[in-house]
Amino acid sequence: MNQDIIVGDDLCWQPTEQTVAFSAHWQGRRVPCFISLHRLEHMTGQPLSDEANILLAFESVRFDIEELVAAHVEEEEFAPDGSVYL
Fold it and tell me: Pfam family of this protein, just one (predicted)?
């Protein structure tokens, strides 16, 4: 678990974009973040087909996602809109 980056509980499945949107908090700043369904399936090793399972899968790898977000933030790998895309 990374103490510099805290992933919020504001998960939102975006079916059109095939991503889970969430926010991370870093140095008092809110950073919008997105993880693709494909990446989440790869991280969990299972196919995900409905919102409930997708959000449960996110929770099962939350700490790994925090580490990925932290790596992007430390390297200042932000999208032009200031978001982090995984």
Answer: DUF1488
